[in-house]
Amino acid sequence: MAQKFAIVTGASRGIGLAVAHYLASKNYNLILISRSSVNLIAAKHEIVHNYPDIDIHEYAFDISDVCKVAKFIKNITMGLKIDVLFNNAGVLHEGTVFIKTSDLQNLMNVNLIASYEIAKTVAEIMMKEKSGYIFNCASMSGVRALENLGGYAASKFGVIGYSQAMEKELSKYGVKVSAICPAVVNTDMTKNNTLKQKLPTDDIVLTIDYLLNISKYAKVSTISIENIDHVI
Ligand SMILES: NC(=O)c1ccc[n+]([C@@H]2O[C@H](COP(=O)([O-])OP(=O)(O)OC[C@H]3O[C@@H](n4cnc5c(N)ncnc54)[C@H](OP(=O)(O)O)[C@@H]3O)[C@@H](O)[C@H]2O)c1
To answer: In which domain, by residue range, is 40 found?
Structure first.
C-alpha cells in the first residue's frame, strides 16, 4: 500500500481527474472530492482499474457551502499526513457588468472562499509536518482579465493573491505553494469555447510533475501555461 497521501478537489472530471490519475501513478493514496457522487464514483473506478494498489477515499461534498468546508476537510484528514493538495474545484460564469449577483456569489464562494478555506486547513497540517505541496488552481484569467469574464477574473485574481501570501508564510516550514494558471484547457468548462488548439489536460499534469520534482531549494509562486494561438 502506498504511504503518501494527496487530496484532489474537483477530481471527478477535467484537470482534477487527470492530476488524480498522475498522482496515483506516482503511488499517492488519494482523497477525491467533488460535488456529484455519480461522477466521483466513476472517476474512482477508472483510477482503481489502473492502479489497484492505491487507497482511494471519495467524498461528494458541495464546497460552495463555505462555512462547512474547513470542518469537512479537518474531519476527513484526521490523523493523516497530507503530502499534496491539488486545490482545483472551480466553476465558470460569464459576465462583467451584467453578471447576475447569484453567479458572482457562486464564483466567489467556490473559486475563492472555499479554495482558500481548503488551502488554509491543509496548510496547518503541512506546517506541523514541515513538508507538503499545495497547488491552487487559478487561471490566466487571474493574471490578465478578459472581456466578459470579470467575475471569474475577480475570483482567480484572489486565488493568486492568497497563494502568494501563503507561499511566503509557509516556505519557512518546508511547505511549497504554487498558483497554477492555465489558459484554455480542453475540459467540460471550455466546451463552448471555439478555440481550435486547447491545451490537453496532460500539459497541466506535466506542470505538476515538474513542480514536484524540482529541488527543495527552488520555489515557483505562480506558473502560467498559455495557448500558443491565443493571447490573454
Ligand atoms: N478548463 C480551463 O480552460 C481552465 C483554465 C484555467 C483554469 N481552470 C481552472 O481549473 C479548475 C478545473 O477546471 P476544469 O476545466 O477541469 O473544470 P470542469 O471540467 O468543469 O470540472 C470542474 C470540477 O470541479 C468540481 N466542482 C465544481 N463545483 C464544485 C462544488 N461546488 N463543490 C465541489 N466540487 C465542485 C466538479 O465536480 P462535479 O463533477 O461534481 O460537478 C468537477 O470535478 C477550475 O478551478 C478552473 O477554474 C480551468
So the answer is: 4-225
